[in-house]
Amino acid sequence: HLSQWLVDGDATPPSISVTRNADGSLTVEFEGTLQTAPTVNGPWTDVDAASPVNWSKDQAAGFARSKK
C-alpha cells in the first residue's frame, strides 16, 4: 500500500509510484522522504535512500508513503 502525506501547508502532495518488475521485485519512485511501516497506523520510519528504491520479492509486506 502506498500513500502521500503532507507535513507543511503546501497543498500539493508528494508523488509516489510503484512498479512490479519481471523478477517480482518492486521499484518505488518518490518525491521527498520515503517512510515505511508494518501497519497502516505505523509506526512510520524514514528510509535512508534516494529515489528510486528497489525491494526484493522476498521482503516482508508492509506500507510505504512519501512525505514532504
Cα shape = globular
Helix content: under 10%
Q: Low-confidence segments, ≥5 residues, pLDDT <50?
A: none
| Count of β-strands | 7
Classify the secondary structure makeup into a structural class: mainly beta
Supply Rg.
Answer: 12 Å
Q: Spell out the helices and strands N to C.
A: EEEEEEE
Mean pLDDT over all positions:
86
How many helices in DSSP terms?
Answer: 0
Largest sheet: 4 strands, mixed
Strand % is 35-45%
Describe the 3D structure.
Helices cover 0% and strands 43% of the residues. The chain starts with a strand and ends with a strand. The mean pLDDT is 86. The chain has no helices and seven strands. The strands form two sheets. It has a four-stranded mixed sheet, with no helix packed on it. It has a three-stranded antiparallel sheet with strand order 2-3-6, with no helix packed on it. With 68 residues, it is mainly beta.
Question: How are the SSEs ordered, and which strands pair?
Answer:
Elements: E1 2-5, E2 16-20, E3 26-30, E4 33-37, E5 45-46, E6 53-55, E7 63-67
Parallel strand pairs: 1-7
Antiparallel strand pairs: 2-3, 3-6, 4-5, 4-7
